[in-house]
Each structure stands twice: as C-alpha cells, then as structure tokens.
C-alpha cells in the first residue's frame, strides 16, 4: 500500500531584496560612485592631482556620514561636514575650500543635484601672512649645500621662476638653448608660458642632458624608453612616446609597467624627492630661524622681483 506519511512542505523561495529608495524595480544596477566621479573629472580634463584630491574628499564625506550614499544626503549634511573641518579639525581656509569644491562637483556634475545655498556653513578663517623670502646670499648658501639633480632643479626654480611641478614636468623639447628660453606647458590654470633659461644653469643642464642621452640610448635598446604623452598624442603621433624630444628632462629612477597596456613607461620623479633637500637646506641657513609659515620646499622661499637670469 502506498505510504501516506506527512512530508515537510518545500521551503518557499526567498524574496528578492527591495530596491533602494528612489530606484525603480527592475532597473539596471547603478555604477559605483567613485569610478563615476573619476570618469566625470577626466571628461572635463581636470588634472590628476585635482582628481585625487576630489576623490579623497568625497571618500571622507561618505565615511563621515556612516557610509551613506551622498544621494541620501543634502545641504545640511554638507554644512555639518565642512563646519567640523573648520571647528574640530582646524583645517586651513584653502583646505576647506577644496573640500567644498569637491562636494559641489559631486552633487552638481555627477549626481545632478546642486545643493541649496549653504547658509549655516562655518568658514575657516584665512590668516594674513607675510611671505618668507630669502636673500640672494641665503639662496647661494642653499645651492652650495645641494648637488646633482636637486641642485639643478633648484637653480631652475630660482633662476627661471618655475613652480616645482612645472620644472619636473619639463620635456627635452621645452628647453630652447638657442633662444635662452624654457617653454612651460600646462602651468597653473592649464596655461602655457615662456620663461628665461638662466645663464648659470646652462652648462649644468647641458651636462645633465648629455648623461640623460646615454641612459636614453640604453633604455631604447631595452624597449623601456617610452614616456606618457598628453591627451591622445600617442595615437596621433605613432612612435613619439619613444623619441628623444618627448623624454622627461628629469625622469624617474626606474620605469614602471603600465597596468592597462603592459608596457614599460618612465614617469617624472615625485616632487618630495626634489623638495626635501631644498627645505632642509633652507632651515640650515646661518643666522636664520625656522618660522611657522615656512614651506618644506624651495620655491616660496626664494621669490625675487629682480631679474634672475644670473644666479
């Protein structure tokens, strides 16, 4: 006879989780936020440093509010975050302004929800400071304590009035010995400009480039002489990334393998490697005491309104 023993009913299938508020059922999943922010910044041609700074502030903003999505937050949450930066963390006015710019970019250009007027925002106070300027003799003392590439970079910073990143991002084609000029590409505000090539830096620069040319020939034989090119020039100018004219005037110590292409690429050196020796030398100037407003690298310490062709 067939058995009529009771059997346990089959478990009901688990219900699908409800979609987040504001998302229709069956809608495709939204892309991750931070990669979307990076794409939006690249689309608008923001610099790499601005991209890293903005993504960093957006990440801090999300963590500050317990990992809630910024779409669930609004103007009062932005005010609370920025006010705490000024009141509790005691950040400078420029730091708070950078954080505000990052969040405005997030809500205006990524989420499409410009925040309302931030009336309750506590602003960090911007103090009035007198710039620290070294005399010519103090600059000479600093240059005597330096040697090699850091010294050459310091000579160009002072003699040509370059910013640190402007100097480190120079390419061979930007140095014009016949006209005595340096062409600065994409300087502050993404603007190009022409400045002087200091007489005192000409011969050390020639020696540096001659030594660099030998290293370039070795890298060329090892297929590691490739450098990144701006925008889409790598596709427009085939082979330009390995030409001598496009090489960095101050390349990094070793090439790196690009994760996207798998090719060895040589980048310019990071700024602290050049900046720290200059800052240490500035603190060692006889008769000069370190001040709270001093910067850890050379350019702000050596502003000079007179002609700087001769060091």
Number of strands: 5
Radius of gyration, Cα only, in angstroms? 27 Å
As a percent range, the share of helical residues equals 40-55%
Main beta sheet = 3 strands, antiparallel
Mean residue pLDDT: 77
Spatial order of strands in the largest sheet:
1-2-3
Which structural class fits the helix and strand makeup? mainly alpha
| Low-pLDDT residue intervals, each spanning 5 or more residues | 1-29, 276-282, 286-310
SS strand fraction? under 5%
Overall geometry comes to globular
The helix-strand sequence is HHHHHHHEEEHHEEH
Q: Give me the number of helical elements.
A: 10
Distance between the termini: 111 Å
Can you give a write-up of this model?
The chain has 311 residues and is mainly alpha-helical. It has helices at 33-43, 48-64, 75-87, 93-110, 136-145, 148-160, 164-168, 199-221, 233-236, 271-283, and strands at residues 175-176, 181-184, 193-196, 256-257, 264-265. A hairpin with a 4-residue loop joins strand 1 and strand 2. Helix 2 packs across helix 4 (93-110), helix 6 crosses helix 8 (199-221) and helix 6 crosses helix 10 (271-283). 20% of the residues are buried.
């Amino acid at each position: 006879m067939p058995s009529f023993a009771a059997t346990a009913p089959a478990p009901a299938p688990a219900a699908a989780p409800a979609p987040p508020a504001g998302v229709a059922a069956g809608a495709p999943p939204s892309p991750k936020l931070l990669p979307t922010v990076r794409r939006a910044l690249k689309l608008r041609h923001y610099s790499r440093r601005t991209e890293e700074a903005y993504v960093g502030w957006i990440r801090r903003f999300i963590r500050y509010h317990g990992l809630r999505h910024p779409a669930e937050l609004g103007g009062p949450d932005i005010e609370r975050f920025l006010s705490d930066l000024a009141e509790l963390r005691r950040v400078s006015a420029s730091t708070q302004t950078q954080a505000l710019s990052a969040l405005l970019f997030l809500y205006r250009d990524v989420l499409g929800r410009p925040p309302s007027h931030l009336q309750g925002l506590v602003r960090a106070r911007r103090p009035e400071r007198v710039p620290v300027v070294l005399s010519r003799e103090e600059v000479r003392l600093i240059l005597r304590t330096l040697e090699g590439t850091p010294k050459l970079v310091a000579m160009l910073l002072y003699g040509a009035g370059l910013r640190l990143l402007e100097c480190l991002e120079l390419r061979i084609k930007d140095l014009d010995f016949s006209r005595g000029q340096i062409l600065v590409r994409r300087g502050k505000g993404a603007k190009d400009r022409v400045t002087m090539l200091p007489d005192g830096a000409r011969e050390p620069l020639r020696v540096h480039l001659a030594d660099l040319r030998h290293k370039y020939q070795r890298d060329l034989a090892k297929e590691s002489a490739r450098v990144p090119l701006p925008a889409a020039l790598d596709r427009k100018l085939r082979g330009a990334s390995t030409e001598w004219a496009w090489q960095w005037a101050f390349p990094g110590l070793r090439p790196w393998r690009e994760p996207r292409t798998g090719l060895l690429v040589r980048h310019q050196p990071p700024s602290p490697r050049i900046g720290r020796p200059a800052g240490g030398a500035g603190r060692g100037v006889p008769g000069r005491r370190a001040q709270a407003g001093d910067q850890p690298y050379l350019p702000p310490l050596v502003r000079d309104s007179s002609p700087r062709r001769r060091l």
